[in-house]
Structures are given as structure tokens and as C-alpha cells.
Design brief:
The chain has helices spanning 9-41, 51-79, 81-100, 105-133, 136-167, 172-175, 177-191, 205-228, 234-256, 270-300, 305-311, 313-333, 336-351, 362-389, 396-430, 439-447, 449-458, 462-497; strands at residues 194-196, 511-513. It is mostly helical and 524 residues long. 58% of the residues are buried.
Amino acid sequence: MTAPASLPKFRQQLILSVLMMCSLLIWLDNTVLSTTLETLADPVRGLGANPGQLQWATGSYTLAFATLMFTAGALGDRFGHRTVFSSGLVIFAGSSLWAAYASDAGELIAARAAMGVGSALITPANLAILMWTFTGPARTAAIGIFSTSAGVGMAAGPVLAGYLLDHFWWGSVFLINVPVAALALVGLAVLVPNFRSPTLRPLDPAGMLLSISGLVALAYGLIRAGQVALWSRADVWAPIIAGLALLAVFVLAELRVKAPSFDPRLLAQRTFGGGNVALGLLLFAVAAITFYNAFYLQGALGFSPMKAGLANIPTALGALAGAPLGSRLVRRLSLRPVAVPALTTAALTMGGYGFLGLQTPLVWIEILLLIQGLSIGVVIGPVMAALISTLPLEQAGAGSAVTNTVRQTGSVIGIAVGGTIMSIVYRRAIEPSLEDVPGPVRDQARVSAEQARHVAAAIHQPTLARAADDAFIHAMHVGAGWIAVIALLGAAVLLITLPAAGKKGPTPEPAYEEPRSSGAGAAR
């Protein structure tokens, strides 16, 4: 790798290790939570959370992540990416402690939102530091290495969560974030310069308020639809309309700002815009199908958390192998003929959930998950690298903010829509089996399959538990079909937009402050 003159090659490699550790932390948290959802829904072992609360436990994190991302990028350009990065790690570690000892679902949702704030501060700074540290071919190689942290996190997270859930209480899955964050803080302080952009961007509090309120309102309406099973109610359609209107005002407001923190103009670039839309649709599908997978393995099939974690390893291994495989294929064939078939394959594997049932052999599930992880890995790494390469370095903060915001927004909407489809279809499917069931039992069984199994065990009614399993499987089949359509739409967007290539602008000299331990003065 060709090292830039500002930093020795060995120090670059150490910085990359710290950045990968922090990326691993984020991926661990995401995969750990998906393994914990079934336990959190249990009234005895967890918090007895209903599907709407579980959607918010996941969505509140992602909402904060998505809506604060572009503001975090502007803060990094102004005060230094290391400073913002360190603040995010402190918030993330503190809120992880809060989540671990949450006493009810509402408190867990609030703690998860605070964790999202920490992640929002970490992620843009992580990518910006990577881009400032490496240049030329070294940057491309570093991005490829960096992307493997996602696969490692996906592989280790479910197994680690399964072990902790089998041996400790559910809150232990959040405590693992604390020592990793502490180690990363030390690495940042010792190794990483405080890179800053020579061009400061405004903090844009109005844009932040509009984006937060718009996404919260939209997600609330979508999740509320699953709780009441009716789209005609004012508390469903009114928040959805208000959320879409606020987001439209947000885009218009950002277009009027000379130097916006979230720049919608970047999405007008064919490759950058199309690639981001496709990744947003892919992340929509991934978030929704992951939500289903957690309840399928541990709920319908009755796997222990550890067995469910082990069962998900093929997805992680596939993603881990897919990233470097995708990069090699792109070098040989170019991006379009690699990314479009891979995303199409990923969509088909998600639709494949429509053929899974209570008697499906585990080997077929594992094959499906392996192909799914491999195809997703082939898409995300090369497409992300292509998006980054289309922007000049001085737009690194703004570009990473747009990319991550779009992806996280896709996840938010995916969780909301996927969970709502599951709740509505489950409730309709279970209803015929509840005609002769007492009122309190009927109300609890309508909430979710998890609640139905619990009450069925309490009143010794195995037929009710079987009916809940069948209703859930039907709901998963219906949801999987819609999820596959969304992912296929992402493949179509890539097919249309990938032929154009972005142009790279001039690379400015980085302005940074050396870590205090290095003894160097601050560069101005």
C-alpha cells in the first residue's frame, strides 16, 4: 500500500485496527439485539415486550442513528473527527449500561435511542478518518479490509449473544459493549490525529429537527398500523402523512442552504444517488427479514439462543467471504454485472423464507442463509467503495453522512413495515382459533405468537400454541414476499444507474491535530 507522507505506514495500520474495532462494536450490537428479541418478548425471562415495543427497541436506535448522522459529520469537520468519535464512544458505552439494567420496555427503548446517538457520532467519523488516513490504492485496500469487520461482527454477535442469554440475564448482551468501547478510546487517544476538513459546514439544527420529527412521525404511523390492524384510523394515517410532509420540507430546506449538512444534491449524481437508493432498499429488506428470522428460529422452531446464534453463522460467513469476492469480481468484470445479479440473488433468498415451515430441515435453512449472506456481501462492499470513490475528499463527511443516513433510514422503515405486516397478518390468521378462548387469554394471544405460546403453556392448551406457530409462519410467508419485491426493486435501480461513473475532485491537504501523546503541536 502507498502511504501518504503525513503518517507512517505502520501507524496507518494501527489506526485501521482501531477503526475496525469500533465498526465491529456497532455490528456486534446490531446482531446481538436481533438474537435477543425473542427473549425480550418472553414475559418471564425478558420484559414481555409486544411486537410494537420490539420494533421501537430496534427502530429508536436506528432513528437516532439516521437523523443525527449528517449533523455528526458536520461536527467532525468543525471540531475534529477524533473528538466527535470519542464523544460517541462515551455515549455509546454509558447508554449500553443503561440498556443492560432497563426495568421495562419503555426504558430499554430510551436507552437504545441514546445508543443510536453514540453510533451516529461514531460512524461518519470512522469513515472520514479512514479516508484521511489513506490515499490512492491504499485507500481502496483499506476499505476492503475495513469491510470485513461487518462479517466478523455478524458471525460473532449471534453466538456471543446466545452464550450470554443461555448463562446470564438478557441485559448482559449490552454489557459487552463497555470494555470494547474503553479499549477503542485508548487507541483513538494514542494513535489517531484529529483530522478536520478545511471547509467548515454549518450544524443545521433546523434540518436535524425536521428530519428527526419526520422520521419519528412516519415510523410511529407505520408501527401503530400493526398494533391496531387498521390503516383507516387517524392515529395511523395522520402521522404517516405528517412524517412524509416533514421529510419533504427537510429536503427543500436543505436544497436552499448553500452548504447543507445533509446535501440532497449529492443524490442527483447518477451513480452516487442510485447506489444509495439501492443500498437503502437492500437495508430495508435485510432489517425486515432479520426481524422475522429471530422469531422464526427461537419462537416457531424453539431453538435456544445459542442454537439460534450458531444457526445464523452461515449468513455471517457468507457476508465475510462475499466482500473480498465481490471486489475481485468487480476488478475483472466491472461493478454492474456483479452487483445486479448479487442483489437479485439476495432478494430471491429473502423470498425463500416463504417456503420455510415448522418441519423444514435445518440444512436447507443453513444453505439459504449462506447464499443470502454471500450475495449481500458481494453487493455492499463494492457498491460502497464505488460511492465513496465518486466524491472528492473535501466532501467525505457530507458523502458519508448521506450514505449512512439513507441506509439507516432504509433499516428504520424496513423494521416498521416488516413488523407491521407480521403483526397484521398474524392477528388475522390467529383469530379463527380464538373463538372458544376466554377473553383475557384471547387478548394476550392476539398480541404476538410469543405471548400466545406463553399463555397456552400457562393454561395447558397446546393446540393454542400450535395455532400461534401456524399463524406466525403464514405471516412470515406473506411478509417475505413483500420484502423480496423491495430488494428486487433495489436491483433494478442498480441496473439503471450503475453505468455512469462519478468524477473525483482534487484532494486537499488534511488539517489535523496530533494526539497529545505524540508530542506534536496542533496544525492550524
